[in-house]
Amino acid sequence: MQSKYPLSFKESVNAPSSLSKTSDTELWDSFRMGNESAFITIYSTYFDTLYLYGKRFVRQEQFLKDIIQDLFISLRRNRGTLGQTNAIKFYLFKSLKRKIVKEEKRRINQTEVLPDDFEFDVYFSPEQLLISRQITEETAARINAALRKLSPRKKEVIYYFFFEDLSYCQIREIMKLDNIKSVRNLVYKALDFLRNVL
């Protein structure tokens, strides 16, 4: 996967944009209609977020960066045919996960679904701990140890629900669960497990 952006695009990524305070719906629609500044705003706003999200599935740094880069190239190329969204981060998470699964399938010739034992890391970062000063270092260590004991699917649902603030409906779509009740059950089971461990 050797995809490169043109030099002119790289140089323009850091250009200031008046679109940064636009609603997701307006920004996305502007991008779909061909506004290059809207594309640059989306790229610069979400690249790092997508990278951190993708690292929870993919360990190879360059492979992950190539996948994200290819995702943005594909979005840019097909912008005229993309659907609407009022939640860009959710749309990109869903697209990236689908692309990771597809690339992993191509690489290891497996099914369209990530195996149940596929790792998904979730933990409190130092920044999150600084924000929540009520959490002592010892408590944080206990929480992180408990999170590590969760199954990959429970880690994933906890990450989407508590760390990324996605709705049950959005989580159902990303995780390809049957219905919202399945998401709720998975969240409750994960929380119940954490409660028992803690």
Distance between the termini: 43 Å
Give the count of structural domains: 2
Tell me the CATH superfamily of the largest domain: RNA polymerase sigma factor, region 2, helix turn helix motif
> Whole-number radius of gyration?
18 Å
CATH class of the largest domain: Mainly Alpha
- The best one-word shape is globular
Point out poorly predicted stretches: 1-17, 111-117
Helix-strand makeup class: mainly alpha
What is the helix/strand order?
HHHHHHHHHH
Strand content: under 5%
Tell me about the largest β-sheet: none
- From the coordinates shown, what is the CATH architecture of the largest domain? Orthogonal Bundle
Report helical residue fraction.
Answer: 55-70%
* CATH domain topology of the largest domain: Rna Polymerase Sigma Factor, Chain: A
Q: Give the total of beta strands.
A: 0
What is the overall number of helices?
Answer: 10
- Name the average pLDDT: 79
Report on this structure.
The longest helix has 21 residues, at 88-108. This protein has two domains: 7-108, Rna Polymerase Sigma Factor, Chain: A; 126-197, Winged helix-like DNA-binding domain superfamily/Winged helix DNA-binding domain (Arc Repressor Mutant, subunit A), CATH 1.10.10. Helix content is 65%, strand content 0%. Helix 3 (36-54) crosses helix 5 (88-108) and helix 9 (168-175) packs across helix 10. It has 198 residues and is mainly α.
